[in-house]
Amino acid sequence: MLLCIDCGNTNTVFSVWDGERFLATFRTSTEHQRTADQYFVWFSTLMENRKLEVAITDCIISSTVPRVVFNLRVLCDRYFDTRPIVVGKPDCLLPVNPRVDEGTQVGPDRLVNTAGAYDRHGGDLIVVDFGTATTFDVVAHDGAYVGGVIAPGVNLSLEALHRAAAALPHVDVTKPQAVIGTNTVACMQSGVFWGYVGLVRGICDRIKAEYDCPMRIIGTGGLAPLFSQGDVLFDLIEDDLTMHGLTVIYSHNKENGSI
Ligand SMILES: Nc1ncnc2c1ncn2[C@@H]1O[C@H](COP(=O)(O)OP(=O)(O)O)[C@@H](O)[C@H]1O
Ligand SMILES: CC(C)(COP(=O)(O)O)[C@@H](O)C(=O)NCCC(=O)O
Ligand SMILES: [K+]
């Protein structure tokens, strides 16, 4: 049984893959202080609660936070007796190597999204992922990650507004009733919601113009469905794209003998 770990700057997601489907998915906040023992107690309690008695034999990790990888490696070694594949490390093979400026460390989540999206849909894609940051990944005709865009994340923008302005409260992102807000919260929600719809649309249009050949747009991350209520932004929304990408990279490494 394969354990896929996707560690973002805000949340860490564990998913158990039986070779055909994901049996369970658990989410916790990302904290670099969390120890291997803490991860294991959390994970095994949830597995027991779901009555899943399975042995983890393999593990693959994607982490945008380098500091957490050490304890996740200890978790794999101590509790699952396995050495994890860590996306972005030299011994982890990618189906297609990225084509970016020399010395650039592409976020592993973006490499994983690229592999997952190419496996399902072929090339010429834009993957829009609403995480801590909102990332746009351009997947070329042959499945290579060839660059993209990094914009501030939705919650980050709302938090920055709240922190910087004394009279602005903390608000959650939601689709407002109207564009013209008639109270402070509605004004902020309108700014973030419609601002983001415009940002996604504008960036995708400009990527398409620069790329100069038809592209499909895939939305992923918890907030993708919300923004597609404002405008037709995506050809497809796929919530499990990152986890799927992890299984694709794992299989590629298995087939090519690197594990
Ligand atoms: N369905 C959702 N509705 C509202 N907020 C969400 C939803 N899913 C994720 N978020 C928020 O979006 C932000 C990014 O979440 P996540 O995708 O887990 O980021 P990362 O991968 O960078 O850790 C977080 O602040 C999280 O609380
Ligand atoms: C852009 C990111 C911060 C997004 O991370 P996330 O929102 O998933 O936590 C991450 O992919 C990253 O640290 N990238 C490194 C720089 C790059 O991809 O070019
Ligand atoms: K992410």
- Binned, the helix content reads 25-40%
What would you call the shape? globular
CATH homology group of the largest domain: ATPase, nucleotide binding domain
Please tally the β strands and state the result.
10
Number of helices: 7
Weakly predicted, low-confidence segments? none
Present the secondary structure layout:
Blueprint: E1 2-7, E2 11-17, E3 22-29, H1 36-49, E4 58-63, H2 69-80, E5 85-86, H3 108-121, E6 125-130, E7 133-139, E8 145-152, H4 154-164, H5 184-211, E9 216-220, H6 224-227, E10 236-237, H7 241-255
Parallel strand pairs: 1-4, 4-5, 6-9, 9-10
Antiparallel strand pairs: 1-2, 2-3, 6-7, 7-8
Describe the structure.
With 259 residues, the chain is of the alpha/beta class. Helix content is 38%, strand content 22%. It has 2 domains: 85 residues, ATPase, nucleotide binding domain (Nucleotidyltransferase, domain 5); 133 residues, Nucleotidyltransferase, domain 5 (2-Layer Sandwich), CATH 3.30.420.40. The strands form 2 sheets. A 5-stranded mixed β-sheet has the order 3-2-1-4-5, sandwiched between helices. A 5-stranded mixed β-sheet has the order 8-7-6-9-10, with helices on both faces. β9, α6 and β10 form a beta-alpha-beta unit. α1 crosses α2 and α3 crosses α7. Adenosine-5'-diphosphate (ADP) binds next to loops. Pfam families: Pan_kinase.
